[in-house]
Amino acid sequence: MITSPSAAHVGQALTQTLLSIERRLDALERWEEKRERWEEELERRVEVLEAREHRVAQFETLFGLNGLEHDPVDDETYPG
Q: Which residues form a coiled coil (predicted)?
């Protein structure tokens, strides 16, 4: 004869399932918070690099270095 689980067993199984889902949602929330912090840090670093790039462009313009290419012969003549 097949017996069905008691209400207590079903309730216990549901409670365990809900606790498991809750733990996973908490972990997902923590991961999302980390991802947001990483994105903010990445955006900050991009801003810093863009500012540096702008300063280099200003320096090149100020000293007339726009469009000048690095001469590989200089590396051979003056290594280091």
A: 21-48
Cβ pair 10, 16 in contact under 8 A? no
CA atoms within 13 A on the CB side of 66: 7
Residue type, 35: R
Query: How many domains is the chain partitioned into structurally?
Result: 1
Contact status, residue 59 vs residue 65, Cβ threshold 8 Å: yes
Global pTM reads: 0.55
Biggest alpha carbon distance in the chain?
A: 95
Task: Name the amino acid, one letter, at 63.
Answer: F
Q: String of b and e for 21-39 (b: at least 16 CB within 10 Å)?
A: eeeeeeeeeeeeeeeeeee
64-74 per-position pLDDT tens digit: 766 555 555 55
Q: Which domain holds residue 24?
A: 10-77
Structure tokens at 57: 């462009």
